[in-house]
Amino acid sequence: MVQVKLIVTGDDFGYCPRRNQGIVDCFLAGAVSNVSLLVNGSAAADAAKLARRYNIPIGLHANLSEGSPVCEVLKTNSSLLNEDGFFHGKMGFRTALSKGLLNMSEVKQELKAQVELFHELTGHLPPHMDGHQHVHVLPEVRNVFAEVLEEYGIKYTRVPIEPGLHKCDWITPSLMDFYLGVEEDSLNTVDVFTSHGIRWPDIYIGLSTMGKNMSVSTICSAIDAAVVEFTSKAPSPTHPTPRSRTVTIELMVHPGYPSVPPIGGCGEGPDDFSQSWERLHELQTLIKPELQSHYKSRNIQLCSFKDL
């Protein structure tokens, strides 16, 4: 049987105290094995303390789209800000980028400031770094992101190309359009990250299993199908004998107790996503014993990026 190393990453650690508590509860239940910290989140310092207290493996969730920058000089008069003085938002960032309005040297400045703040909060550099709302795989941003990772010696990232995504007919058309855009950007990012010596797990899962679409069966079938597809690929110079090697997977999750305004967020208060019942739904699904027993039956070992 193929051995699978599964990294279950709880994103948005630091977003608010209730999100932090939910992620910690999942970690203590053995349902999350790794977390990704929003250093501009309103509860980032608290999250870093919790990670230290419970020995939770922690990386950086680089944020260029929600809330406020952490770099002092970019807090006023920066191309990264909208007229209200906050980041442009998930879609606003993409629009500003496509119009050539974003200054890439400011993107680099902010990414470096977030790495430095992460180091200050946790006492170490992040072993992995990905992008909030997948901004790190966008055109131009991907190059700057790769440079920053290489500069700090951060080895691992996330490349959100999800096997079988096109067949997931339960995803709404508007969301599917966004996901397919993320996939296309990710495919165009592979060569950039590879040329900078950056690595990522063999398989990514998390778009098809997000929020209300998460269930024990969607997670199990996504993992099983992805492993079968990966191990049946013809050997290549980079993966000589896939059948005999360990397969690595990252499952992106967003568990937590729903945010209660005005507490939370990254400077603007919590968004609808963080206030919704879907956070709790993910938490309750991830801690189900049936999921843990499925992992055991498939020789799936939970781990963190540090264990790769």
TrEMBL record:
Protein's recorded name: Carbohydrate deacetylase
Organism (species): Anas platyrhynchos platyrhynchos (Northern mallard)
Alphabetic keyword roster: Carbohydrate metabolism, Hydrolase, Magnesium, Metal-binding
Superkingdom: Eukaryota
Protein task: Probably catalyzes the deacetylation of acetylated carbohydrates an important step in the degradation of oligosaccharides.
Pfam families for the chain: YdjC (PF04794)
A single GO BP: carbohydrate metabolic process
Lineage, opening ranks: Eukaryota, Metazoa, Chordata, Craniata, Vertebrata
InterPro entries according to UniProt: Glyco_hydro/deAcase_b/a-brl, YdjC-like
